[in-house]
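Minutes, methods subgroup
Present: GH (chair), OT, SY

1. OT presented the first of two proteins processed in the latest run. Sequence and structure tokens recorded below as shown on screen.
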Amino acid sequence: MIQKENSYGTFDQEINAFFKDVHHFACLINTCLYQGQEIVKPEDLMLVDPKTQAYTRDVLMLWNGRYGSYYLGIENQLIENYPMPYRILQYDCLVYKDQMDTLEKEHRKKKDLRSCEEFLSGIKASDRLIPCITIVIYYGTRPWQTNFSMKDMFDVKDVEHLNEYKMNLLEVHSDTHRYKDKELDLVFSMTRDILNANFNTIKNKYKQGIPKQVALVIASMAKDEELYQQIKEEEKEVIVMCESLDRMREEARAEGMILGRRDGLIQGEEKAELRILTNLLKKGISDSYILEITGVSSELLMKAKQAIH
């Protein structure tokens, strides 16, 4: 099993690798920013180094297209990060700072600054920066709760005159977009059903085999260590997800029954349920699966999680 402290890092790597594919990336941008129009062409995208000074972004592409040149970034969030608007502003500003540093260095080398304004600015009036657009993809099971823009992070009465710096936020659990890229559409739709515990839908809808690597991306987006490990250990390269999910649910259900019998616990007693829930959580089984197979309340599950930490 993936160790808990390492699992999110593994999930990030799987998801980032998926979006480094220019076809997946272009389709995401076109769907979320351009209402499905094919504005961004895969052949116009170039993967660039995501590291900017001390920070590393998840995925960063340079787009040279019909509207000019843009940096396009993706940040994947497996759980909610409260200062995310600030983080995105910081990432984007660092992209601009790198460009400013390069321009100033070039002008110092050429010694071509003439006016007082140019010397003060370090650049010429004709110099231009490449803009940066970032999309945050959130894979939580509940809606994003807190800050959607920088304005939300201030506790003041007059926000009218503040710059908003609103995030481009995509919440997979409630995403209703249809994606022209079939792999991207499958990944998001199946992840959404897992996050919402729509297991009957999964069983009836996803009977076709999918590439193992795509299945690993889905398990990563769903933050499901048990499912991820089960797929990872499969020898075949084509995975039928409904079968993998069924096997995992049966194992989880059996685990709960074994634990209950072993400890002589009476069904319905909170202590017994908490013990079973903590053991299931320690095995890396996701919240949605646990709620579906045990029928306990989300409050009791939260209490079990608190007991672990």
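2. SY then presented the second protein from the same run.
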Amino acid sequence: MAKSPSSADPSRLDIEARVLEYGLEQPTLGQFSVAQALQAQGLKVSASTVRNIWKRHGLETSYLRLLAKSKGMNGGDKTELNPDEQSHLKRERRNRKLAAKAKGQDEAVSALRREEVLLAAARIFADKGYAETSLREVAAATGMQPASLYYHFASKEDLFATVHHLGISRVNQALDATALQHDDPWRRLEEACATALKFQLNPSDLAVVVRVDPGIRYPARLQRRIDADRASYEDRFRRLIDELPLHRKADRTLLRLTLLGALNWTRVWYRPSGPLSAEDIGRQLIRIVFGYGFQRAP
């Protein structure tokens, strides 16, 4: 007849009690760290054993162990969490809220977290610029450990490039939607300029990040990614201008570069309190750049 665990090996219950005790003493440590710490104290226990004990008592995650410590396990005394444990619990609660938000939606928790990081990064990049922003600041703004950012982004360069691409994608989508609304090629270009300026002159963080500043040069690899984004934006104006019925002597490339330069420079002198809206200025620029001289076809 097999003996009960208590009579066959009394130390087994002692090990279980110590695993539970240590798990509440150091609730943020994982099973491997706890097993190593207990082994150093002379207890023969593996990481899988620690994990199984925690699961039997509903303590398999750091979140559950932190709750048990703060509320008292099995009616025991409550223990006040130290600042690091409070911060860890706050992050875990945040992650659980994100998980609840993702439930029933197509997005996974990682996608929601990624979006949150991108928007926080856009805010900091817009405020401090690329050079002065650190991943530690972005992590702090989202309640993450700095190392956790590397799950989503390989480097600060990768993070900035992704934020920049998100901003360019937003304005490109708006330009495409605008173009579909108009049949007349002149009206299409006019409204595209209005749409572009509405985005560029918006004080949003993404708009600030994607603004063209010729005085700033980024690391070579990052600059190539930014240039590719800008090319996708400029290509839309190339197609719009190619569709115009212009005079045969009109230089479409020069007109495109002049127009884009005028759009980009508007943010330097634009004042929201002025008599014209961003959209009105965009429409006026078309009439100035194309409305005089020989550009229009007779």
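Chair's summary of item 2: The domain at 156-290 is CATH 1.10.357.10 (Tetracycline Repressor; domain 2).
Next meeting: continue with the remaining queue.
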